[in-house]
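Service request form, structural biology core

Requester: graduate student, group of Dr. S.
Request type: structure prediction, single chain
Budget code: on file
Notes: please return the result as structure tokens.

Sequence provided:
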Amino acid sequence: MRQIGLFQTVWAQSLRRRRIPPDLHGRSFAALRPLMQGTSPLGAAVAAPLLVHGGLGVSVLVMTTLAGLPGLYLLLSSTDRPSGLEPTPKTAGTGEVRSAPARG
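Core staff response, request fulfilled:
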């Protein structure tokens, strides 16, 4: 089972690298790490009362929906070009893309 998690981690990391502008990689990944590490205790804190009061079926439905929302968002907002990469007038028509200037 642990091997499946490894492949999901690599897949998710490559999606993040593609969608986050390169100049924000360091800050973004540094902020995401504690956020991801904190979801396990947070999930347990939400799931325990839900199991007690809602039962197993309701808990599975709620937790599966919560886990799938980010993926659904990415699917619905997906574009062919990673965000932050726009063709410039100099490279338009050549197929080349360059990073857009950083927003202040």
